[in-house]
Amino acid sequence: MKQSVKELKVTAGEIRKDIVKMVHASASGHPGGSLSAADILSALYFNVMNIDPENVKMEERDKFVLSKGHAAPVLYSSLARRGYFSTDELLTLRKIGSFLQGHPDMKGTPGVEMSTGSLGQGFSSSIGMALSAKLDNSPSRTFVLLGDGELNEGIVWEAAMSAAHYKLDNLTAVLDYNGLQIDGPNDKVMGVSPVDRKFESFGWNVIKIDGHNFEEILKAFDSAKSTKGIPTIIIAKTIKGKGVSFMENNAGWHGKAPSDEELEIALKELGGDK
């Protein structure tokens, strides 16, 4: 299943509408960093990855790890729209008894490869998955999405060093580089720049893109697949809260639910509630 760029734009739009509706229904959650990653996950789940919702544990499937686990709404919407479970489940986000909890749960949610939430640990787990595939001579590729605030965690750099050491060219990391974290701009909380030179110095292939441009996104994934001998990180410049004017570039929407009125405005800006 490979969607065209035109189709991917539609899919990303539907995912963004799901995100604001889910967080509104639960009265809690993380809309800002979910909205910024919608285009990236749309490309992965509907064009790039070798997966089969009808055979969730397919032996040689590609694997995705949401290392910034608080952005679970974007993952849940992507999985539901790809066919892993009904989209009717999305509005049960964070409800008691729901398998869609505040952070991804590999034991309860179909299609989730790793339980994440403690920042940096998902990245480390993805290195283990990629190394395992290498040892098994499997064609399986591993993809992992990190947040830029997540780079404050020391475990990220230990993992980066390990991935380069083991020459994990079957690993592609994507950095959702929206410039903000829960307490404000990254450079004021804990500077992480220059990210590209840091990863290059750790032995990674670095690709810089506009994280909302599907042509650039797909080209970057193709380039990562053809790169041999070293892992790749795609630094995707994004907008936190992308698509909703009052959420865009606003750290206050890192972890806050919209009101009824705000939901109505958001859905209208995203193309209507369909």
TrEMBL record:
The keyword Metal-binding applies. Keywords: Metal-binding, Thiamine pyrophosphate, Transferase. It holds the Pfam family Transketolase_N. GO terms for molecular function: metal ion binding; transferase activity. SUPFAM superfamilies: Thiamin diphosphate-binding fold (THDP-binding). The keyword Nucleotide-binding does not apply. This is Transketolase. It comes from the Bacteria. Its cofactor is thiamine diphosphate. Residues 14-272 form the Transketolase N-terminal domain. PANTHER family: TRANSKETOLASE N-TERMINAL SECTION-RELATED. Belongs to the transketolase family.
